[in-house]
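This section describes the prediction task in plain terms. A model, or a person checking by hand, is given the sequence of a single protein chain and must write out its three-dimensional structure as a string of tokens. No templates, partner chains or ligands are provided. The sample shown here is typical of the held-out split.
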Amino acid sequence: MVVDDDTEALGAVVQLLAAVSDAEICSFPSPWQALDAFAAAPDSFELIVTDFEMPGMNGVDLRRHLQALSPSAKVLLTTGSGRFTEQSARQSGFCGLLCKPFSIGALKQTLSAVEQRPSVYKNFTRNPL
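The expected answer:
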């Protein structure tokens, strides 16, 4: 699953993923649409790739909702904002980080690392309110 409100970026990520994987790729321009699809069939998605900055619900909030439905869901964060490091993304419950713009090589490397990691929920650091 790929989620990004920028339809050009969404299409580009889908094309890159299709070039390196034979998995079926669902794409959503809205985090709400993605959440509805995931809620209907959470076991159908091995990996969710989400942008951080989206109107109405950012990538962190989407990850929280997804992992509330399926704690073992692997959610990969993509962003061009510079607000996250690999470490801070993982501490926030993501299985990894891809900084935009990224190359097909960076995508392959990140996907390989994500496949080798156990469920991130076990390593999820909760920040007290």
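For orientation: The longest helix spans residues 7-20.
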